[in-house]
Amino acid sequence: MPSTNHTFPSRTEHRAWLASQAALPAGFRVGTARFEFTPFEVPKPAKMTITLIVLDQPTPDFAAMFTKNAFPGAPVIVGRKRLEEPKLGAILVNNKISNVCAPGGVETSERLCAAAAKTLGLNASEILPSSTGVIGWRLPADAIAAALPQAISSLAAGSILPAAEGIVTTDLYPKIRRADLLGGSIVGIAKGAGMIEPNMATMLVYILTDLAVPRADLRKILARSVDRSFNCMSIDSDTSTSDTVAILSSGKVPCSDLAAFEAALNIVCADLAEDVARNGEGVRHVMRVKVSGAPTEQTARAIAKTIVNAPLFKCAVAGNDANVGRLVQAVGKYVGANEPTIALGRTQMKFGGIPIVKDGIFALDPTKEKALVAHLKSAELYESAPPKDGVFAPPIDFPPHERCVEIEVDLGVGSASATVIGADLTHEYVSENADYRS
Amino acid sequence: MPSTNHTFPSRTEHRAWLASQAALPAGFRVGTARFEFTPFEVPKPAKMTITLIVLDQPTPDFAAMFTKNAFPGAPVIVGRKRLEEPKLGAILVNNKISNVCAPGGVETSERLCAAAAKTLGLNASEILPSSTGVIGWRLPADAIAAALPQAISSLAAGSILPAAEGIVTTDLYPKIRRADLLGGSIVGIAKGAGMIEPNMATMLVYILTDLAVPRADLRKILARSVDRSFNCMSIDSDTSTSDTVAILSSGKVPCSDLAAFEAALNIVCADLAEDVARNGEGVRHVMRVKVSGAPTEQTARAIAKTIVNAPLFKCAVAGNDANVGRLVQAVGKYVGANEPTIALGRTQMKFGGIPIVKDGIFALDPTKEKALVAHLKSAELYESAPPKDGVFAPPIDFPPHERCVEIEVDLGVGSASATVIGADLTHEYVSENADYRS
């Protein structure tokens, strides 16, 4: 089930592995600039990084998907318009402020695209903007415009790592995944589900390829890949106002096999989604929940999401507590509220491969209980320690392994299945989201 | 909006107030017994209380509503059958173990009803069973049967307080609400949303009245009251497998005004629901969210529930952080995912009475920010302090006040509204649900 199973004994080894993944596909350059500014709403110094991803030649072959939140950020509103444009030449990203429901937000976003376009020799409509960070604040447009020349002068074709680092907020580490195939490559970076003090999570994903996949195919393929990866992940059930996944093809390498391209993109997207979960706020355990035997894939996915989002079960996993009662509760909660006609009398459940429910009835004993706890401990990313100041923070800034808490639920009523990635609910999550303000 | 606004400077004053609410309606007695036993699954000593609520004469006038969880507890399965019986004479409640998906659970529940019925001179079918506590464990049927005579010998007509105390698990304090009207009374008790180590929340509510309301009316009225109170509350979005709300009328006092009865029952249920939220696991702030201007009441309620269940917003409230971006996120999340045709451009939002969103755009400034924080602090039940052992626990076992964080969202697109009670997400919640096990 997992496409990778690395272990990283130290940050150094994780960084070396990231570097090994970071070569840019042909036809792209990335550059960044970091600067200090003073937000209008909270007049204290803050720092922002702008990241540019630039194509050597504008391309018609691009695709993007955006948040379904009904209060979308201004860059999402602009980005949806860009989908109708004939070509895209660059992506301009800022962190720290997400430009959501802010007065004049769309105008500011367009103004910054125009400023970047002028120096890059593009049209403003050929630039896709993205912003992530505090919701409610206004973008410091003048400060961003002033920093653009530095970002442009730093554009380089070697590595995507500067962009992977430039787009993060409180992520613990950058995230890069790649696939090499058919003489070209697919390279993706992701940001999230980090928090920026004091505001909400945003996921940004940019995928670059030199394989020539026409726009119409690229859009269909991206939609399917996203549906099976990022749409099958939940850290805390909250939907960002800025979520964006974009893919750009430079077309430098002919693509002889669209099916192979799609399969490789699926893996890149699924691995990035798991990276995002593993680096989620305060995450100590990643959960992988497979629901099978369902009447439809939609039902299977909804039940799996209910499990990974059930606060009581998430807390139990955080505590290495094999609280199977809370797992059963979550399944029953979804079915009872949404599809009460599904009979659960043939439900089987496994936890770390160990059968715990047989035909809807618990099959537990003290020996199994110990094995369940051992499985939970093996998937723990770090041990939580109470800090002196009361603010919990993860003691690592790299992922020590890629193991998950593995949960299987077979409803026994159909043949559809789905797998969802999630995470536990920890003191580190609460500290990150409650403890840094008055 | 709040029906009560007490403050309790100390536990003593809270207890005195509870005592003032506790007089039983005519025609009822309550009794309890507490004993030690050894669970089959985790062979360590544990304690259980059984609680009996007994009518002087079995009554045809009773109503009950149960969890919609599709893995209902055995007592819920039995309770649904009881609704068809001509009369009910008693309720038998145990805490500590919830008897859910346990081998032979229904048979055990019926066996205990039969044992109680024999001593009380009733039929087994005239007893409504309830169990709350650990999911997955089996009831200690022999130990419960052995304790029944003690509970029966303690039956007394004076106060409902022993029952309010007998049904709790990890609740910090018992919950009683009453209404006196038309020469009779309605008295309700509630358990939840406490946790029993190491398992999941259950809400149990029993309401007794001496007012003679015929069964058919009682059932319709209870359904409406529950829909506006307990169904408008969420501590953590997890639905217990054992939730039960039951009302019994002894019929001792003629009821001349059904509308007055329903109005009084509405208040008793709404106040108990708020009590349950205020005593929710680790709760430091109760939130009251009113959504108005909605196309339907269902939409208004769903948006309000999305707000009180949004983990990031709950964490912000816990930290006295007026993070209005997360509030906007929650509204947009629901609308985008479920009713994307609703336009949010006329949305107004208030926080503690202070306007923060006007026509879908933030209206914020540093002065308002201070006022929002002051509102949050005024609604805080206690200050969180990092404990030496890393396990957070509320420092109080009574509710110091009945204030809420008040949030109003006016969608401006219709005339329907709903109000939902919820709570924040704290270190105390995580500690209660993660920190007590290996």
What does it look like?
Two copies of one chain form a homodimer. With 438 residues, chain A is α+β, with helices and mostly antiparallel strands. Chain A has two domains: 11-278, L-amino peptidase D-ALA esterase/amidase, CATH 3.60.70.12; 286-434, Roll (Ubiquitin-like (UB roll)), CATH 3.10.20. Chain A contains twelve helices and 16 strands. In chain A, the strands form three sheets. The first copy, chain A, has a seven-stranded mixed sheet with strand order 9-16-11-15-12-13-14. In chain A, strands 3-10-8-7-6 form a five-stranded mixed sheet, with helices on both faces. In chain A, helix 2 packs across helix 3 and helix 6 packs across helix 7. Chain A is globular. The model of chain A is unreliable at 194-201 (pLDDT under 50). Chains A and B meet through helix 9, helix 10, strand 14, helix 11 and helix 12 of A and helix 9, helix 10, strand 14, helix 11 and helix 12 of B.
Short description:
The structure is a homodimer of 438-residue chains. By secondary structure, chain A is α+β, with helices and mostly antiparallel strands.
CATH architecture of the largest domain in chain A: 4-Layer Sandwich
| Structure classification of chain A | alpha+beta
Enumerate how many helices of chain A there are, as a single number: 12
End-to-end gap of chain A: 44 Å
